[in-house]
Amino acid sequence: MAAGSAIQIPTQLPLLLTHESVLLPGSTMRTSVDSPRNMQLVRSRLLKGTSLRSTIIGVIPNTSDPTSDCDDLPNLHRIGTAALAVQVVGSNWPKPHYTLLVTGLCRFQILQLLKEKPYPVAEVQQLDRLEQFTNGHKSEEELGELSEQFYKYAVQLVEMLDISVPAVAKFRRLLDNLPREALPDILTSIIRTTNQEKLQILDAVRLEERFKLTIPLLVRQIEGLKLLQKTRKSKQDDDKRVVAIRPNRRISHGSITEDEEEEEDHDDVVMLEKKIRTSSMSEQALKVCLKEIKRLKKMPQSMPEYALTRNYLELMVELPWNKSTKDRLEIRAARIVLDNDHYAMEKLKKRVLEYLAVRQLKNNLKGPILCFVGPPGVGKTSVGRSIAKTLGREFHRIALGGVCDQSDIRGHRRTYVGSMPGRIINGLKTVGVNNPVFLLDEVDKLAKSLQGDPAAALLEVLDPEQNHSFTDHYLNVAFDLSQVLFIATANTTATIPPALLDRMEVIQVPGYTQEEKIEIAHRHLIPKQLEQHGLTPQQIQIPQVTTLGIITRYTREAGVRALDRKLGAICRAVALKVAEGQHKEAKPDRADVGEGEDCKDHITEDAKPESISDTADLALPPEMPILIDFHALKDILGPPMYDMEVSERLNQPGVAIGLAWTPLGGEIMFVEASRMDGEGQLTLTGQLGNVMKESAHLAISWLRSNAKRYQLTNASGSFDLLDNTDIHLHFPAGAVTKDGPSAGVTIVTCLASLFSGRLVCSDVAMTGEITLRGLVLPVGGIKDKVLAAHRAGLKRIIIPQRNEKDLEEIAAHVRQGLTFVLAGCLDEVLNAAFDGGFAAKARLEHLNSKL
Ligand code: ADP
What we know:
By secondary structure, this protein is α/β, with parallel strands linked by helices. The chain has 32 helices and 24 strands. The protein has a five-stranded mixed β-barrel. A five-stranded parallel beta sheet has the order 8-9-12-7-13, with helices on both faces. Helix 5 crosses helix 7 and helix 19 packs across helix 21. The longest helix has 46 residues. The protein binds adenosine-5'-diphosphate (ADP).
């Protein structure tokens, strides 16, 4: 047998039957073992065997699927590879199986099958007679030539691979060190070949034949690699060409001539440069831009900074450095625009017109910034818009609510990833002119954070001495903001940073009375809503009494925003009806249109003309115009949200109505008191601030010291009001924080009612700070408070005497319906708050007789 061979295999070999792969001598293969025969072989031979011989097995390829043949041994391929089992790994998941690592040694052929079960064993003959080649029995010339050719192809193939990969370098070395006869088998198992081709190589027992068969496979692989490299190269070339454009262009742009510019017009960077040069930016900005574009040209496009620089330059080009709209200011026209757009707000309109008049006379106004302060929905933003309209300027609103980072105003430095300009510069880019009206909305809601104080950044923006050279961090060059007209809005001045407030002229915009709201609704809101919903006055009719119903029962606000929303809801509902009606009108069977007109003038809650729900029930086209009465209101908006609760709540002693001011407008505020047996403690609830708590203590102290005068006693008849008595004072709407001194008079009145057992008049509201001596001091927000009382239907209002001047601001028709009591001391307050007064002497006699 193969006496001269370096490898001697046993004459009897257990056979491993493989289905999918072909093992060739000299290569290693991992194969999964799960058929019963192969499993048996692994268990009884490989796992139990102790000698090296027992690890040598015969691998027979191309067996039919081993899982499908359990009993009969399939036809076996005649030639196999003797192999050394190097590793066995067992696993139970997903079913019991082994993974076997085998290394091919040499070919063999089956002479005779010795046994079939539990695994096949055969008598074999070793086929690789390697000594034949070296001994030179065969035609050496031919073989030498073939092997040389093969070797050349193999080297060519390896050299096409990346030699820096360690496996490739190792393979290159192996090519030289291995005997040439081993190469066909090894290379066949390395290069891309099919199982069928491998099988052919395995069957090629003659070395010469093996070389002949392998060379075409090698050539095929080389050709494939060549093709691959070619396509890769062309792609790289494309990339390189893109990169190469830049350096070339740089050279051509060493000095720019007009001709060259013409030539490269297609190139957008050149276009950008052209735009920069032709834009009217400041000299400083131009210098920076030219420097940046020079850098841009040197940069490969793939660099992240390329996009950053480009964006920067594009912004610089887009900014309106010198572009402005022409002011067309004519005060009379401005007055008309303001009057047409807004009902009421006389004081605000007057001040705005003054401001505009000064602008007209003196072109460059370095005056203060106007700041409209008032509750939401009173038209602050909308007046700002009208100002822009009268001036013929662009309008841009910058919402500052919640801004807590100064880079929101001033931008991020360009070194930051995702850096961008601040809102001012962004706004300028949006409007495209350098003299727009900027409305800085909600300046009172600026916040501070670790990222700096945005209010400080705003100072620079608003200061006419500084803002001609405002420097945004992103731009890094000064931009002139002196032509921009800034208007600010806020709900309260309390939270505007003092330095900012100092630069602004505050104009208070108070809330509206019910009458004003009705007018605003009918003159402005309803026409706007109709237009937005595609309705006409011929389709919907909202009588004034309905509007009043919405104002009193569905909204409780100083402005008209909720009213506007409710009107919107009504319009939507009507739009649906109208659209449905149009659909049904296609096949009308009823033509009694026009009745709605008759009942529109006398709508009461009891009278029930055709309402929106009725038309739905009848499934008939609605009659035009659809009339919105109280029933329709209820259908669309649901049950009323607010009821007139004032009189109901004042039906027992110990309740009084105060007036409070909030950033959302004035509010009426109930104060309730009760007393119980105890040790003289005062309990205060309703989220009160310290000032309000102190007011409560002041009120009690004043009443205790004046108890005898007013004949006020506790439950046991003692003039010491806190003797064996606890007092609880509560301010409803407990979730809302309340503070301020103006509830003083209300607390006194409420406690006086509690201890005297008398009811406070149900139509009286009051406000005023108190002192220990019983004086009433002035308070703020009188106008809003009076409007709130008016809204709530109260008739008499007690205010501090020194607030008399504030009454002038209140519209005459509001004043007409109200009685004002100007109180200088608490005696006057109590006298006005109770029916028949609260005189000390009169009470004394009365109470004496009672006792
Ligand atoms: P604010 O800025 O004060 O919160 P807006 O300016 O946004 O309020 O006003 C809300 C809505 O109310 C706008 O549609 C506005 O046109 C309308 N509005 C407010 N006051 C008036 C008014 N006096 N005349 C006409 N419409 C008004």
